[in-house]
Sequence to fold (132 residues):
Amino acid sequence: MSSPVEEQPPPPENPPPPFTSERRDGSVLEQWDVPSHTYRRYENGALVIERPFTDAENASAATAASDDVRRINRAVLLAQVRAALASNRAYLDKVAAGTATNADHIGQVPALTRQMQGVIRLLAAGDLLDQT
Fold:
């Protein structure tokens, strides 16, 4: 009997799209259109300013996009941790029952190494969550 195959969860089907942020104040509407990197200001419904993002607005948009990627990757890694717990529980049940084979033991080492990579990235967070 071979060791259980570690099942990987699928990537998120619908990652969050680029966003448009708005701020309304009476008759004034300010809009930051991230997909086009364009700022627009409307007064009484009429467009009065349209310009490319400033460096600060571009930096803010990049930070928000990076935060979204990290949030998604964190969710994927947490799903992998949950799957790993189930896989490890099944292995430990075999060990406790005395039915674990050499293949089970040998297969567990690389599985644990892959699992720890995800756990370390979750614990360290930051730029380690830029990729899954």
User: Anything to note?
Assistant: The mean pLDDT is 79. Strands lie at 20-25, 28-33, 38-43, 46-52. The helical segments are 55-97, 102-124. The longest helix spans residues 55-97.
